[in-house]
């Protein structure tokens, strides 16, 4: 079945409202109440869980526990038949092992179940909504499809919505997709065939990081994308791990051997003429002695210690046997920025006025004045007591630019998104003239440039200039630097602010050093036979240089695939590409 949001993605805002029986005045109060009864409350419903007593009982009734119960029962029977042989104490010890192990496993599972309930906290408690043309604040749980909500910077999206009006809206979808880049969202109709790729949809649990909007709710509660993920998280089927299978197999073998030996020794005792009861108690002792009472607590303790170590690294283990899954891993796909690197960027090198310079180097600063202006003004940072907060890359550029004075006022922004791979900011003077500052991936900006700046002189951005800048880009990227192109153009009084006929100011190489412990972790993974594949949005040369530095890539000629190439691979071609001994994905 199609995603419910796709039916309104391609509709204009007015038609999207009409399709949900709403308008710019929102729903009528009576209609909202009727829909609440029909669609239910806007909450992530917890899947009906087993009662606590059943969870506890399960820890005492699995096959190996039953073997221990049988051993304890036989020990008590032997103690009753032949007192003073220490069998009663042995039976108590076995029962103690069962109880301690069962309670410990139950506590671990109970704590994990409580942690999963934190999903509810990812949705807001209250929301601004328009009903009967009046702005109201209502509990987010009372939202229904067709409600018109008002969202601004810092707000969590309470339900899946279609934007009908927006002003500089940018949304962080990390909760849903894991993608750290903010996405620009607007009210225009979209042709996307995938809901999460649509440019006019908002999803429950995501965060508004800039701008504001009016949006109409089209899905609530468990019908949202977030609700579907929560449902999958809570209803994933239980599968028996290899360790559990092996313990079950060993349990059967131990049970058969123990009983078999007991029967054999009982038969031998009868044959040689031992008294029946003495012979029977001796056979019970043989059976109990061959049951490995220490195996279960040893395995449980080892898994519990591993679970605690993972918890300190923010990894939640819901069931103890799942710890073993890590031991079965053969491939790790990892991001670069913030995962392999520290995500603390600094500007290290520049290519400006046709020459390479270190950012800390003192040379005639007039050559890079316009470059620093772009770095200073082209950002979406927020300032608290003069301290910038936001994207680490933008903070690094702002700090590099130094204290350039501001002229005019910020007039607008063309936000960054992963399709355009660039952003622009417009500044206007009081007389209406102004500047457009643009930064982004070099390959996204080069086609938009008609000139490049050599100090104050503008020179044609012809084929020779393009080759020069491309060579500089590759040189910077080969040394592991993240490369950005910075461009500018003057705006006439009240002129159009389009991203064309730009003047290329230069290239900036930003350094994001690897985390101190990454190299050792990568070496240990290689030693364990685990294959590591980097998947990043950076330039292939930048990604390859970092991968070599931390030894993710060790061969001379690894396979490097870009996102564009990946989109056009058939499943068979992708399978063949994955057969490469060393593989890296860039510009994804």
Give the gist of this structure.
With 588 residues, the chain is α+β, with helices and mostly antiparallel strands. The model has no long low-confidence stretch (mean pLDDT 83).
How does this structure look, described?
This protein is α+β, with helices and mostly antiparallel strands. It is 39% helix and 22% strand. It is built from 20 helices and 22 strands. Strands 9, 10, 13, 14, 15, 16, 17, 18 and 19 form a 9-stranded mixed β-sheet that branches. Strands 1, 2, 3, 4, 5, 6 and 7 form a 7-stranded antiparallel β-sheet that branches. The protein has a 4-stranded parallel β-sheet with strand order 8-20-22-21. A hairpin with a 5-residue loop joins strand 14 and strand 15. Helix 13 crosses helix 14 (392-401). The two termini are 28 Å apart.
How are the SSEs ordered, and which strands pair?
Elements: H1 6-9, H2 13-19, H3 29-39, H4 52-58, H5 63-81, H6 87-116, E1 126-131, E2 134-139, E3 148-152, E4 160-172, H7 174-177, E5 182-184, E6 201-202, E7 207-219, H8 225-235, H9 242-272, H10 276-289, H11 295-311, H12 323-327, E8 331-334, E9 346-352, E10 355-358, H13 369-377, E11 382-384, E12 387-389, H14 392-401, E13 409-414, E14 422-428, E15 434-440, H15 442-445, E16 449-454, E17 457-460, H16 463-478, E18 482-491, E19 502-511, H17 518-527, E20 531-535, H18 540-549, E21 559-562, H19 563-567, H20 571-577, E22 583-586
Parallel strand pairs: 8-20, 16-19, 20-22, 21-22
Antiparallel strand pairs: 1-2, 1-3, 3-7, 4-5, 4-6, 4-7, 9-10, 9-19, 11-12, 13-14, 14-15, 15-18, 16-17, 18-19
Helix pairs in contact: 4-6, 5-6, 5-10, 6-11, 9-10, 13-14, 16-18
């Amino acid at each position: 079945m199609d995603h419910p949001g796709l039916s309104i993605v391609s509709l204009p805002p007015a038609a999207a409202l009409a399709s949900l029986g709403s308008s710019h005045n929102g729903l009528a109060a009576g209609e909202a109440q009727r829909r609440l009864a029909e669609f239910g409350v806007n909450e992530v419903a917890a899947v009906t869980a087993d009662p606590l007593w059943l969870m506890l009982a399960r820890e005492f009734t699995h096959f190996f526990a039953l073997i221990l119960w049988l051993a304890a029962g036989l020990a008590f029977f032997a103690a009753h038949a032949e007192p003073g042989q220490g069998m009663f104490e042995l039976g108590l010890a076995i029962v103690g092992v069962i109880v301690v192990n069962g309670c410990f496993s139950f506590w671990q599972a109970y704590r994990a179940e409580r942690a999963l309930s934190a999903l509810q906290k990812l949705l807001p408690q209250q929301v601004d909504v328009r009903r009967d043309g009046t702005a109201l604040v209502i509990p987010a749980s009372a939202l229904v499809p067709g409600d018109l909500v008002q969202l601004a910077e810092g707000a969590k999206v309470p339900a899946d919505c279609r934007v009908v009006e927006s002003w500089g809206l940018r949304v962080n979808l990390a909760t849903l997709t894991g993608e750290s880049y903010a996405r620009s969202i607007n009210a225009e109709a979209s042709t996307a065939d995938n809901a999460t790729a649509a440019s006019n949809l908002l999803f429950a649990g995501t965060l508004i990081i800039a701008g504001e909007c009016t949006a109409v709710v089209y899905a609530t509660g468990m019908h949202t994308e977030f609700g579907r993920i929560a449902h999958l998280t809570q209803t994933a089927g239980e599968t028996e791990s290899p360790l559990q299978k092996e313990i079950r197999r060993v349990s059967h073998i131990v049970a058969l051997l123990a009983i078999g030996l007991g029967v054999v020794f009982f038969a031998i005792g009868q044959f040689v003429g031992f008294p029946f009861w003495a012979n029977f108690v001796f056979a019970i002792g043989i059976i109990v002695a061959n049951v490995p009472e220490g195996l279960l607590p040893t395995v449980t303790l080892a898994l519990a210690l591993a679970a605690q170590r993972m918890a300190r690294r923010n990894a939640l283990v819901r069931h103890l046997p799942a710890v073993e899954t890590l031991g079965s891993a053969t491939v790790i796909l990892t991001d670069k920025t913030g995962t392999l690197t520290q995500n603390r960027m600094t500007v290290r090198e520049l290519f400006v006025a046709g020459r390479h310079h270190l950012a800390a180097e003192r040379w005639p600063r007039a050559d890079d004045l316009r470059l620093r202006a772009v770095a200073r003004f082209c950002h979406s940072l927020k300032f608290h007591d003069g301290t910038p907060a936001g994207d680490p890359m933008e903070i690094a550029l702002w700090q590099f630019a130094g204290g350039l004075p501001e002229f005019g006022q910020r007039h607008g922004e063309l936000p960054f998104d992963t399709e355009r791979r660039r952003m622009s900011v417009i500044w206007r003077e009081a007389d209406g003239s102004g500047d457009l500052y643009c930064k982004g991936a070099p390959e996204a900006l080069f086609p938009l440039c008609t000139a490049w700046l050599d100090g104050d002189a503008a020179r044609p951005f012809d084929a020779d200039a393009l080759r020069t800048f491309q060579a500089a880009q590759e040189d910077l990227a080969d040394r592991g630097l993240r490369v950005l192109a910075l461009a500018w153009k003057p705006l006439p009084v009240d002129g159009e602010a389009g991203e064309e006929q730009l003047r290329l100011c230069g290239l900036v190489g930003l350094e994001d050093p690897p985390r101190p412990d990454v190299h050792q972790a990568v070496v240990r993974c290689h030693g364990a036979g685990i294959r590591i594949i980097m998947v990043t949005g950076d330039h292939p040369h930048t990604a390859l240089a970092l991968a070599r530095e931390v030894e993710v890539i060790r061969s001379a000629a690894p396979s490097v695939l870009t996102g564009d190439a990946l989109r056009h691979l058939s499943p068979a071609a992708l399978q063949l590409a994955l057969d490469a001994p060393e593989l890296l994905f860039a510009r994804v």
